[in-house]
Amino acid sequence: MALTFVVPGLDEAASEKAIAILQNRLSQEQEAALVLKHAHWNVTGPNFIAVHEMLDPQVEAVLGMADETAERIATMGGAPDGSADAITRNRTWKPFDLEGRHSTEEYLQALIEYYDAMIVDDRKAIAELDELDLVSSNIVQDHVQELEKFQWFMRSHLA
After folding, report:
1. Which of 142, 155, 159 is closest to 54 using CA atoms?
2. Which CDD domains has this protein been placed in (predicted)?
3. Contact 56, 116 (CB under 8 A)
4. End-to-end alpha carbon distance in the chain
5. Residue-range definition of the domain harbouring residue 42
6. Residue 10 resides in a domain
């Protein structure tokens, strides 16, 4: 990848590594927004409206995370790839596999598992970014904090 510039205080090699990590996170953040919206449309059952309305703010927040990640990539001189193909090309995580109409409990459990994997991947990214670029690491840390809160909402709903 050819960087258009390098931010002050970082070398090109560290920047390229950080951008690759951020691109992976961007792709999963974009997929997560799609997954959450899919669940929003397909939940059923007695708690439908509560879960339906709980998911839309999460969709918006995750899209905001993706925007922040993409802007960090651009700030570092990279070119964020927001295409649908990038999600598949950059996937290092298990795809969400619940399709169609299911109960709120089934969707929440599947979303909790999806968040589990995403949070683990984000924490790995944080550890790698801590060695490369603390600013990028802090961005992902903020995202993890928000994802963990959303997961807590889902777990509490099922308790």
Report:
1. 155
2. DPS (cd01043)
3. no
4. 47
5. 28-80+93-158
6. no
